[in-house]
Amino acid sequence: MTIKDTAEEWQVTASETPFVGNKTSVRTDDVVMPDGSVARRDYQVHPGSVAVLALDDENRVLVLRQYRHPVRHKLWEIPAGLLDVPGENPLGAAQRELYEEAHVKAEDWRVLTDVYTTPGGCDEAVRVFLARDLSEAEGERFEVAEEESDMELARVPLADLVRGVLAGELHNNCLVVGVLSLTAALRGDGVDSLRPADAPWPARPFEA
Q1: For the chain, how far is it from start to end, CA to CA, in angstroms?
Q2: Residue 90 near residue 109, CB atoms below 8 Å
Q3: Average pLDDT of the chain, as a whole number
Q4: Closest to 197 measured CA to CA, from 117, 131, 100
Q5: pTM for the full model?
Q6: Collapsing DSSP states into helix, strand and coil, what is residue 23?
Q7: Residue 8 falls in the annotated catalytic set
Q8: Which of 23, 50, 64, 42 lies closest to 155 in space, CA to CA?
Q9: How many of the other CB atoms lie within 10 Å of CB of 53?
Q10: Which among 11, 35, 49, 59 is placed 20 to 30 Å from 21, CA to CA?
């Protein structure tokens, strides 16, 4: 038996958008169920995101600590950001986020994993990249604002992050998925077996 997610779209008899925000919106769909009944589903419409697990030569991961108001926590995270432009190449977006949030560039890029963060209530898709061969970026640092102005940066051994995840001390979705996926890759077929950085992404098709 092949375990693989498959694309499918059930019939929608009515749809409305009761809220439109700066980056996301809320949609309400009336969806036909398998028994013929119709159920109403509310969900957040999201442009998609990229995240970067940047691993240095000492097997440390570049992480940042940032306040997240909806959960009232300062969370340790990996660099990440929205796909601001429809059809935007996710690799370019990931490279931009690594530069803006950490002033770092990387020479080696792979796709670590693709996830839907909360598919029961949001259509956000995230591509998590593995970035290696790190160095300081050239030019001036990106000028941060709002929550990012209070951001802390650190390089933490991968093993310490795994322990923090399993101990319930680290909660950010992309960090958790990223460090556990990298650990699995390292213990399996190795990072050279990961998909190339320009691998297709059906959830968010992009221009090459």
Answers
A1: 33
A2: no
A3: 94
A4: 131
A5: 0.92
A6: coil
A7: no
A8: 64
A9: 27
A10: 11
Q: Extract the tokens encoding 137.
A: 């970026």
Residue 9 forms beta bridges with which residues?
Answer: none
Read off the pLDDT of residues 74-114 as tens digits, 9 standing for 90 and up: 999 999 999 988 888 999 999 999 999 999 999 999 999 99
3-state SS string over 133-160?
A: EEEECCCCCCCCCHHHHHCEEEEEEHHH
Nearest to 130 by CA among 87, 66, 180: 180
pLDDT at 86: 80
Across the range 61-69, mean pLDDT stands at 96
Q: Is 8 helix (H, G, I), strand (E, B) or coil?
A: coil
Catalytic annotation, pick one of 100, 148, 152, 207: 148
Q: Please report where in the chains the tokens 């809220």 appear, as a residue.
A: 19
Q: For residue 68, what are its two tokens?
A: 């997240």
pLDDT of residue 84: 84
Find out whether 125 and 107 touch, Cβ atoms under 8 Å: no
Can you count the helices (H) and strands (E) in the chain?
A: 3, 11
Which residue has tokens 């994993």?
A: 113
Q: Parallel, antiparallel, or unpaired for β 195-196 and 25-32?
A: unpaired
